[in-house]
Specification:
single chain, 219 residues, mainly alpha, Rossmann fold, Helicase, Ruva Protein, domain 3, 2 domains, two-stranded parallel sheet, two-stranded antiparallel ribbon
């Protein structure tokens, strides 16, 4: 399969999560000692229930780091909720039509990789990452007691990739700082680990990212 949807992934036991980690990182799976390569492109989508924690297994930081983006999904709108009720009541399913072939996706992925990333924009991405690791160097001394550890180099990689993708979807062949700013919260929020001090003060990663984006100069 090219796309795997892991619903409520934090209910999967650690052994299953470890197997998924191999698939996401190595693009392969090992069954009974035999290794099988996965199709390309390969992508994992996963959901978590942030409310119910009983019987769940929190994902390790190493596995969270493999996910490019984290989206926070709120309750559906009134119209969306009515649509859900009608769909369930009819015992039917929403029609699914393909929007692209595998070949088209691979071509688009190559075109995204070719989107120009200026050195100044790359420097900006790196500075954002370092500001989460060394906040005091960016005038954010008060965040030093709130961040347990900052983002990994993989965050920098995914931030440049997704900024390129955003530029591509908007018809540009170059990345703007605004592309980086738009993608930064989605790419970095699950890679920051806050301290107990932050939890006690009710400060989450969203607030920390807002502060970081405000402190690092835009090129």
């Amino acid at each position: 399969s090219n796309i795997i949807l892991a619903d409520e992934i934090n209910r999967a036991p650690p052994k299953v999560q470890a197997a998924l980690l191999e698939a996401m990182e190595e693009r392969q799976v090992t069954i009974a000692g035999e290794t099988h390569s996965l199709d390309s492109p390969f992508m994992v989508l996963a959901t978590q229930n942030p409310v119910e924690l009983h019987g769940t297994y929190p994902l390790a930081e190493a596995q969270l780091d493999r996910f490019a983006l984290k989206l926070n999904i709120s309750h559906p709108s009134r119209d969306e909720e009515k649509m859900i009720v009608r769909l369930v009541a009819s015992a039917g399913s929403a029609p699914i039509e393909p929007v692209a072939t595998v070949e088209q996706i691979l071509v688009a992925r190559g075109e995204v990789a070719a989107v120009h990333l200026d050195d100044k924009v790359l420097d900006y991405v790196v500075e954002l990452a370092f500001a989460t690791r060394e906040p005091g160097a960016y005038g954010l001394e008060d965040l030093e007691d709130l961040i347990d550890f900052g983002t990994s180099p993989r965050a920098t990689i995914f931030l440049t990739r997704t900024a390129r993708a955003r530029a591509y979807l908007r018809g540009r062949d170059f990345v703007l700082p605004d592309d980086v700013k738009a993608m930064a919260p989605l790419v970095l929020r699950h890679r920051l680990r806050t301290t107990y001090e932050a939890d006690a003060r009710g400060i989450d990663t969203e607030e920390i990212m807002r502060r970081v984006l405000g402190a690092v100069p835009t090129p």
